[in-house]
Structures are given as structure tokens and as C-alpha cells.
Amino acid sequence: MSVAYLGILVVLLGCMTALDARLRLFFWRDALAATVVMVCGVGVLLLTDLVGIALGIFSRAPTRAMTGIVLAPELPLEEPVFLAFLVYVTMNLVAIAGMLLARGRAGR
Prior knowledge:
Strand order of the largest sheet: 1-2
Strand content: under 5%
Number of helices: 3
Largest sheet: 2 strands, antiparallel
Shape: elongated
Order of helices and strands: HHEEH
Number of domains: 1
Number of strands: 2
Helix content: 55-70%
């Protein structure tokens, strides 16, 4: 058992939060809307994981980098944290793309 993967995910979430705060991308732009998007995004992805697990499509491969804690059969503790990171990085990228497009239009 190790917390290496979980620790890396937490550090990466911290980096996304710092980028968000610096550029006012997602939570720093509209905290309520960002919270709704984050909860819905993680919820849909988690539901997709659970359906995949139930159908036998997804399974957990034991590794020494993970804690070994499972929230449900074949659903490791790290999965919701990874999904939160995935949603956060996606929304930060969407916000950055929007900023760049707006700058491009303003420059014309």
C-alpha cells in the first residue's frame, strides 16, 4: 500500500487551483457555477465508471502505487480524485481557450 498516486493527484489538483486563482479561470470566476459543473462532471463520470464496472468492462488492477482502499468493488479511492482532476483541468483548458479566442477577436 502506498499513497504515491493519490499524493500526485492531490499535488496536481493544487496546481490546477493555483492556475485557476492566478488567471481567474473557473472557481475564481464563478464559484457557484464551477461547483455545479464540478459536481455534475464528477458525478456523470463516476456513474459511467460504475456502469462499466457492473458490465465487467472496468476492473481495478492492483498496484503498489495505490492505497488499496476501495469505495465499491473495483472502484479505488483514487478514482473520484482523478475524475475531479480531469474535470478541473478540462474546465481550466476551456476557460483558457475562451480567453485566447476573445483576445484574437479583439485584436482584429
